[in-house]
Amino acid sequence: MKKNIAILIDEEIEHPKDYRYHSLDELENLPDSQYENIYIGDLLDYIPPDQIQELLAKISKKLAKDGKLNIQGPDILQMCWYCSKFNLDISKFRYIIFQTGKKICYTLDEVVSMVSTTDLKIESASYINAYEYSIMVVQNEPN
Q1: What are the structural domains, with CATH classification, of the chain?
Q2: Cα–Cα separations (whole angstroms), residue 127 to 8, 32, 109
Q3: What are the C-alpha distances in Å from 111 to residues 4, 27, 86?
Q4: Which of 8, 52, 61, 76 is the most exposed, having the fewest neighbouring CB atoms within 10 Å of its CB?
């Protein structure tokens, strides 16, 4: 049986249906090395930038040996570009940026850079639609 969990700020945040929701506050109580798939969505956008490395380290401890971490969120530059060029609904843009409680809204490149400074390895990083990215991360094999 797969052990899939979503670690998010709020249970209302969309996540894969076959993933059990856990709030960020529960992270410390989850067992280490147990989860095959961890989905954090745009969780990093809600965390102060100086705490992200520590958070990624804590989450990586929860991954099983061949486990995967999925980071998915809106890219601020892509959203701006689509608003100006293709009329992305400005009310949706405002909601994402100002009404969700985010501390920041990163770009795909910024998240890739943050993950690259951890013990995690990026398996894939791409856009899943006009303005959202998806990054699949695995444990780095020890040398």
Answers
A1: 4-139 (3.40.50.150)
A2: 21, 30, 11
A3: 22, 20, 25
A4: 61
93-137: per-residue pLDDT in tens?
888 888 788 888 999 999 999 999 888 999 999 999 888 999 999
- H helices of the chain, where? 52-62, 76-86, 90-98, 108-116
In this structure, are residues 82 and 88 in contact, taking their beta carbons and an 8 Å threshold? yes
Q: Residue type for 122, please?
A: I
Here the tokens at position 114 are 């943050």
Structural contact between residues 44 and 113, judged by C-beta atoms closer than 8 angstroms? no
pTM recorded for the entire structure = 0.89
